[in-house]
């Protein structure tokens, strides 16, 4: 029986182990017999499972056969009260460890990620250092991980999906505890992952284009001082320019800039430089006239014609190689792709792909496209994949919205001070709004902004947002409201969850969905009228259009990772060509029939592809979840209390969380149903 259980656990537990040597197997069998004799036959199943889980992860460096047997006989716990106390010990200890490392890493990375002055050469090294990289190794070396594996169950995704609805909250906490030790990745590999991530994030954070120096036929289309980060700000400027008089020429220019970035034909010298003028159509570069150079910039540089080397794809390749180094330590999920879907998302890749293709192939998409064309009064162009005219803010120009936000939030401190009022406008009771505001720290971002959660209850989540010298523009405000949604979820899912082992939400798509719920109400936060019936109708079409856009990007992210696994010895240049080919293939399948243009590479522009390790599928799944939450809230339910109820349920499987939140598992019905009602009967 023990040999069979060892084999089963080796298949179920992703640890880099060879089969146990005969001496270890004999010691485990003897320990099993002794433990069953001591604790009774009623404990046999637990004993055999726990011993098998330990044996699957035990290495010669952990001790010889005698040490293994002694450990097993000393550390097995059978009495219910003692087992509950053991779970509590782990829960409190891991909260302290996790929270401490989050604090330390936050301090180490602050100079690289916050806008607190010029970076020094040491700052990227500090950001790349992961204080907790050795934690799992240390917990195994100290035998603490083995205590958890001996006493609590490892489970497969199939088991969690099949049985999770019947488990108690404590049983879920036990599952999450053991799951932390399902893989034994060496600290050196974790540090390699941290380094690759940091290098990619720094590259992306510095990937700016000074738009005043982007010329089209010798004409400057953008205002002085406008510096747009790729891809976030470039995409958002396309959205903003639907409300500007000369927006079409700007949008076409930005599309060309994006194409130059993804094809790596952008001149290296114009990246993040206010000293050179550049025409993205001809790719000509020239020194900028002195009177066009932003205040404080250095004298004009000599024009440089060389294209940017394939740094973008070199960074992506580094993340792949770092992730692949962890593959041998995860037998049940032996690729990063499998780990993202099976272990992190707990949604099988096939199911995610099917959900996304349901949206991409929906007959509602061409109908939405016709509506976009009608509203624009012209044929669609590829950049219209980011059409934003359905949203209420399209009633206001970018300049009007900028004036509102800059006046209200001239500094980060002003946004921090206004958090109670913002949260009250979002539907939280005054006392809850104050509580939340006191538990979020706002800081100036060097990049576009992000939310950094806490991991222990005496620490605080941090909101990072970009604030210019003349205040927070509307783009920054919109992102800040989104990030605030993340932070509020982080507060509730840490401070109000019943077991800190369950802190968080099922996966990143859920925290994105909750952040989308906040972001959709940004104009109400500014005191502008809430959407009327017509505006709500258009918002439903907007949600479909946004999900349609990002679904293809998500499929590309997955396809690129699959290509890298099929070609592990690839070069950055080969990866560039493969990525562009995959992007064009997906465009031709799902977008060319709608837009009437083939071989467009725009799906490859997302910076997440470079720095976020297969993150992008979380966005469209997040849109589906957000649609379900919005459908639930539409039933005359206040946002504040419902958001709190949902976010404090903790990290269980996605469908279990969604049934608790909305009564239904994850699906496309809410999104497509709302769009169908908004578009009305098909009259074609």
TrEMBL record:
Domain of life the protein comes from: Bacteria
**Signal peptide extent:** 1-19
List keywords of the entry alphabetically.
Signal
What is the protein named? Oligoendopeptidase F
Q: Which organism is it from?
A: Anaeromyxobacter diazotrophicus
């Amino acid at each position: 029986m023990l040999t069979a259980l060892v084999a089963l656990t080796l298949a179920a537990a992703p640890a880099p182990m060879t089969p146990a040597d005969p001496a270890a197997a004999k010691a485990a069998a003897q320990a099993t017999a002794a433990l069953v004799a001591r604790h009774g036959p009623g404990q046999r199943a637990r004993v055999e499972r726990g011993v098998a889980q330990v044996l699957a992860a035990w290495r010669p460096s952990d001790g010889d056969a005698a040490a293994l047997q002694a450990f097993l006989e000393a550390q097995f716990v059978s009495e219910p009260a003692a087992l509950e106390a053991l779970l509590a010990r782990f829960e409190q200890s891991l909260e302290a460890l996790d929270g401490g490392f989050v604090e330390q890493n936050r301090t180490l990375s602050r100079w690289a990620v916050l806008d607190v002055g010029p970076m020094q050469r040491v700052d990227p090294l500090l950001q790349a250092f992961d204080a907790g990289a050795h934690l799992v190794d240390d917990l195994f070396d100290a035998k603490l991980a083995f205590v958890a594996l001996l006493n609590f169950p490892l489970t497969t995704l199939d088991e969690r999906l099949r049985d999770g609805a019947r488990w108690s909250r404590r049983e879920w906490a036990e599952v999450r505890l053991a799951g932390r030790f399902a893989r034994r990745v060496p600290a050196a590999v974790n540090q390699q992952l941290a380094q690759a991530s940091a290098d990619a994030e720094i590259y992306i954070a510095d990937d700016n284009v000074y738009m005043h120096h982007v010329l089209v036929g010798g004409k400057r289309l953008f205002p002085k001082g406008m510096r747009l980060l790729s891809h976030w700000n470039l995409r958002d400027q396309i959205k903003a320019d639907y409300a500007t008089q000369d927006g079409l020429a700007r949008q076409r220019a930005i599309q060309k800039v994006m194409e130059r970035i993804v094809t790596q034909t952008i001149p290296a010298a114009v990246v993040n430089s206010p000293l050179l003028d550049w025409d993205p159509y001809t790719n000509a570069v020239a020194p900028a006239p002195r009177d066009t150079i932003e205040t404080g910039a250095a004298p004009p540089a000599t024009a440089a014609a060389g294209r940017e080397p394939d740094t973008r794809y070199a960074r992506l390749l580094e993340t792949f190689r770092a992730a692949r180094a962890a593959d041998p330590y995860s037998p049940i999920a032996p690729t990063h792709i499998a780990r993202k879907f099976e272990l992190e998302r707990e949604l099988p890749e096939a199911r995610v792909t099917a959900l996304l293709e349901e949206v991409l192939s929906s007959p509602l998409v061409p109908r939405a496209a016709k509506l976009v064309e009608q509203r624009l009064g012209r044929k669609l162009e590829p950049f219209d994949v980011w059409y934003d005219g359905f949203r209420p803010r399209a009633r206001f120009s970018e300049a009007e919205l900028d004036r509102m936000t800059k006046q209200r939030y001239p500094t980060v401190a002003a946004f921090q001070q206004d958090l109670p009022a913002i949260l009250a406008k979002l539907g939280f009771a005054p006392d809850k709004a104050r509580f939340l505001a006191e538990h979020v720290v706002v800081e100036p971002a060097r990049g576009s902004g992000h939310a950094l959660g806490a991991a222990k209850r005496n620490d605080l989540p941090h909101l990072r947002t970009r604030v210019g010298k003349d205040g927070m523009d509307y783009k920054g405000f919109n992102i800040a409201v989104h990030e605030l949604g993340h932070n509020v979820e982080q507060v509730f899912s840490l401070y109000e969850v019943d077991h800190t082992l369950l802190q968080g939400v099922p996966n990143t798509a859920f925290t994105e969905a909750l952040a989308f719920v906040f972001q959709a109400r940004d104009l109400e936060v500014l005191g502008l009228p809430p959407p009327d019936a017509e505006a709500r109708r258009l918002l439903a079409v907007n949600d479909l259009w946004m999900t349609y856009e990002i679904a293809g990007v998500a499929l590309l992210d997955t396809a690129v990772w699959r290509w890298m696994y099929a070609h592990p010895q690839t070069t950055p240049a080969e990866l560039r060509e493969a990525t562009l080919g995959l992007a064009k293939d997906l465009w031709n399948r799902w977008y060319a029939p709608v837009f009437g243009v083939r071989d467009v590479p725009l799906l490859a522009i997302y910076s997440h592809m470079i720095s976020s390790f297969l993150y992008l599928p979380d966005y469209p799944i997040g849109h589906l979840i957000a649609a379900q939450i919005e459908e639930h809230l539409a039933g005359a339910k206040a946002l504040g209390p419902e958001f709190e109820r949902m976010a404090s349920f903790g990290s269980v499987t996605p469908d279990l969380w969604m049934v608790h939140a909305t009564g239904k598992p994850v699906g496309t019905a809410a999104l497509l149903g709302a769009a169908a009602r908004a578009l009305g009967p098909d009259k074609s």
